[in-house]
C-alpha cells in the first residue's frame, strides 16, 4: 500500500499532467485545427475541454488522500488516456478520434468521484 507521501506525489503528478494537457488543448495549433472543423465539433470540443477543466478543478479542491488512492487504482487507464489524447492532438488528423480520446479521459477522471 502506498504511503501518504507517495500518494501526494502521485496525486500532484496527475494534476500536473492534466494541467499540461489543458495547455496543449488551448495551444494555437489545436485551437486553429478546431476552428477549421464544423460548428458542432467546435461546440463538443470546447464542452469537453471545459469538462476537463472543471474535473481538474474538482480534483484540485478535493485534495484528499483517498482520491489519490482511487487515482492509483486507475493509473493504467489514466496514463493510457493522457497518452491517447496527446497522440491524437499531435496528429490533428481525425476530429472524431480527438473527441473520443478526451471523452474517454474525462470518463476515467470522473470515476474518481464514484
What does this structure look like?
By secondary structure, the chain is mostly helical. 83% of the residues lie in helices and 0% in strands. It has 6 helices and no strands. Helix 1 (4-25) runs parallel beside helix 5 and helix 5 runs antiparallel to helix 6. The protein is elongated and about 45 Å long.
What is the overall silhouette? Answer: elongated
User: What's the β-strand tally?
Assistant: 0
Q: Name the structural class.
A: mainly alpha
Distinct helical segment count: 6
**Biggest pleated-sheet summary:** none
Distance between the termini: 21 Å
Mean pLDDT: 89
Give the ordered list of helices and strands: HHHHHH
Helix amount: over 70%
Q: If you compute it from the alpha carbons, what radius of gyration comes out, rounded to the nearest whole angstrom? A: 15 Å
Report low-confidence residues grouped into runs of 5 or more: none
Q: How large is the share of residues in beta strands?
A: under 5%
Identify the quaternary structure here: single chain
Describe the structure concisely.
This protein has helices at 4-25, 28-35, 39-61, 65-73, 75-91, 95-110. It has 114 residues and is mainly alpha-helical.
Helix/strand layout:
Blueprint: H1 4-25, H2 28-35, H3 39-61, H4 65-73, H5 75-91, H6 95-110
Helix pairs in contact: 1-3, 1-4, 1-5, 3-6, 5-6
List descriptors.
mainly alpha, 114 residues
